[in-house]
Structures are given as C-alpha cells and as structure tokens.
Amino acid sequence: MNKIDITRFHSGKRGYIKADSSKIAVDPEGRLQEIVQHIENAVAQLRFGQGEPRGLSFAEWRGARCSNTEANLVAVHALALDYDAKQFEALKDAADKLGYARLWVLGEDRAQTTNAVTLVIPFKASLTPAQYARIASCIATELGIYGMLEGALAATHMVNVHATTLTAFERGKVLDGEAYIKRTAKMFQGMDARRYERPAPPTPAVEVQVERPFYTTSDGLFEMPFTDADLIVMQAHQTIHGTTPDLTQYGRLIY
To answer: Residue 145 and residue 66: Cα distance in Å, rounded?
Structure first.
C-alpha cells in the first residue's frame, strides 16, 4: 500500500519551519479515511493546544527544522491546490468530472484574510518538484476554475488550517503522476495556469432579501448571526456530507 508524508509546519513572520512528519497509508481503491483522520487530529490539537503548527504539506522534507524552500524538498506525495472558498461548488463539479481520489480541506490563506478550500489529490508514487509543477498546471487548467490562491501551483506551497477546519474525502482513482505527465505532454506546452489566480468573473447581482441564520450560545442567553465564513463552511459541508456541521461547539471562526 502506498504511503504519503504529511508534514506540519509552524507559521511565523519569517516563513514556515518544519515541526514534524508522519507517513499515512493511501488505500489503492481511493478510500482516504486515514488521511482525513490524521488532519482532523492536527486540527483538534489547534483547538485544545497552544502554539500548534497550522501549515500542512503533503511532501517529504530534508532536515528536522527546515524551511519550506525547494532546496529542502525531497519528494511530493499529493497535489494541493488552494482556492477561494466561494468557488467550492464550481470546483467540486470540476473535480467530480476528473474522477480522482481527493480530499477537501476547508481552511484559510496564510494571512488569515480569505477562507480557502484545498483540493488534495494523492499521487500513486512520489514525484519531484518539477513533475509536481507540470501536474499542478495541467490539473488547474483542466479544472478551469478561477480564484486559485497565489502560489498554490508550487510544490512548496502550504495548506493552512485553523481550529474549525473541516475535511472530507471522495473516492476515485489514485492519480498516476508519471502516466499523467506523458498523457498531457502537448497540453503543457505554452500553458499559463497562473491565469486562474485571477478572481472569478463577477456574476450579475440579484437583490434578494434573505434573513441571515442565527445560532444560540451554549448558555441560551444570546442569539448570534453566522458569519460569511461560517456560511461558506456550512454549505461546503452540506454538499460533501449531506449534513450541516455544528460549528458552535468549537467557538467562532477566527476571522
């Protein structure tokens, strides 16, 4: 059974510093429950601990306390593309058409200013940074979704989680990176996948009066409106799981 590295990084003013790493099995039939459980455990530590790492990388790194520079990168085990969470519905539809085994991580950007959804696609075998760059560009182009976060195409990119991050997986075929590179050789020539870092084209505004839902505090004394961040996460969770998450048990989102 193939295993991938999941490496946690501390995020600071000067960049990311490696904290620890684990090897997690990838089911050959695309059941990614062990990876989801590992990420959920990391998120739980953010809720109940202090100073826990919030950067995740699906790669193997050289050195116990290295930074996330390409010189320290040994091998990459999964594609991870970050998008503005507002694009989740369109992104999910596009990912469904590709049919690869995939994870969804509902987190944020490094600056903690944008809700992000990360599409994670494990590889059948580890790849080099150059191979990763080719696959990332081709997959982003095949998805065709704007609103990708800047820097997401790089193998050194970090997935940022927080105390209310939600994760899920969808079954599919595990991506054979080398075979994919051969199949898309012509597609890669002259490609500019960074154009998808631009915001999605605006849609015509339709003014509809919708009452914002509220939640009741645990003591039953107050009613508080859900934030835009809450509503995005709830919609994504409903789409994947068919249920609405109870975010109040974790407190509010951090922005």
So the answer is: 33
